[in-house]
Amino acid sequence: KVGMAIGKSSLSALALRLSLAKLRKNIEVMSDTWRSLMSRCSKVFPGVPQELLWHMTEDCNKMSYAPGEILVKEGDLGESIILIDDGEAIVEKHCWRKNEEQVVPIGRLRSSAIIGDLGYVGTNMARPCQVRARTPVEVIEIPSRILSNLLHYFPGMVGGLGHRLREVGHLIQNKVPTRVSTLTSMDLFTKCGTNLVSELAATGERQLFVAGQVVMDTSHSDFGSLYVVEQGECVAIQDSRGHYARYGYACCFGGKTPIGWGAPKGVTFRVVSPLAVLLMIKDKSMKDILLRCSVGVPQDGD
User: Fold this and answer.
1) Which of 214, 155, 204 is nearest to 179 (CA)?
2) For residue 19, how many C-alpha atoms fall within 13 Å in the half-sphere facing its CB?
3) What span, in angstroms and rounded, lies between the C-alpha atoms of 176 and 171?
4) pLDDT, tens digit (0-9, with 9 covering 90-100), for 128-153
């Protein structure tokens, strides 16, 4: 049909040639984005096939900023990664001087600079600084949902970031809500007494996991413990069904616990965010607390 439209002036021929021109333009934009990702983000996406990066470019956003415009606001909860493709930007920090707030420049970013960190995806951490365009700036934004999907299928992306992830993990553990706050926000403990919740929180053990790590496998291990997600995201995998459930903040999972429910055998719980902080409450500790708080413990078969 394209060949038949060459040289013709009918409305359908003109529309077809216009669509072809737009297609060529779209391919050109995607090719430029892909080349930028390949040449400048190799350390951000180690081990990810080139074909997948090409597919990812469909969901990246190319944006332009005039001098003085703000790329990133301090305090925003954005988790996307931003690549400066062209231009120069200034990094600024809001500070108090002589009892008044001032914006202080603390650095500059040039072409190939990356704003954001793969380790913070899914952590809801605020941006620590503001970034403002100094010259006309072209950027490529990689949305956090795209990064989450990449980690889901290629958890090895974080394999070379062990030291950095540990630093981020320690910071996250200091920022997450208290254990009592996490438990009281769950439907499982709605209207439960403060003594029960406080004791469960006190005996819980916080554990740090990275993408791809198995938290619990009900096929091989003692799976009586209860896990509560305080930060990050986990997924349940069953051989016959694949991925069938996701667990985010204040969600819990486990095997058969003293409260009488749990995952069936053959289910693996794996971390899919760069980092995850989980509160583990052991089976024996839970039984002891339930008995001390005079709560009936379900018997086998109940």
Assistant:
1) 204
2) 9
3) 9
4) 899 999 999 999 888 888 877 777 77
Query: C-alpha distances in angstroms, 130 versus 69, 72, 73, 124, 143?
Result: 11, 5, 5, 17, 18
Taking alpha carbons only, the member of 271, 253, 273 closest to residue 262 is 253
Q: Which residues are CB-contacts of 67 (< 8 A; sequence separation ≥ 6)? A: 133, 134, 135, 136
> Which residue's entry shows tokens 């926000």?
185
**Helices 194-203 and 283-292, packing angle to 10 deg:** 150
In this structure, the chain runs to a length of 302
* CB-CB neighbours of 43 under 10 Å: 10
pLDDT tens-digit readout, 170-187:
777 777 778 888 888 887
User: Which two tokens mark 119?
Assistant: 């380790």
Residue 105 tokens read as 């420049």
Distance separating alpha carbons of residues 296 and 263, to the nearest angstrom: 21
CA pair distance 139, 33, nearest whole angstrom = 10
Report which secondary-structure segment, H or E, holds 39: helix 11-40
pLDDT in tens, 202-243: 888 888 888 888 888 877 655 568 899 988 888 888 876 666
Please identify which residue in the block is written with the tokens 């016959």: 240
| CB neighbour list of residue 236: distance below 8 Å, 6 or more residues apart | 243, 244, 245, 246, 247, 253, 263, 267, 268, 269
Dihedral sign for Cα atoms in the order 183, 184, 187, 189: positive
Q: What are phi and psi of 171, to 5 degrees?
A: -65, -40
Planar angle of CA 222, 223, 224, nearest 5 degrees = 105
- pTM (2 d.p.): 0.67
Q: How far, in Å, CA of 118 to CA of 155, rounded?
A: 12
Please state, in angstroms and as integers, the Cα–Cα distance from residue 283 to each residue in 24, 134, 238, 298, following that order: 61, 57, 23, 13
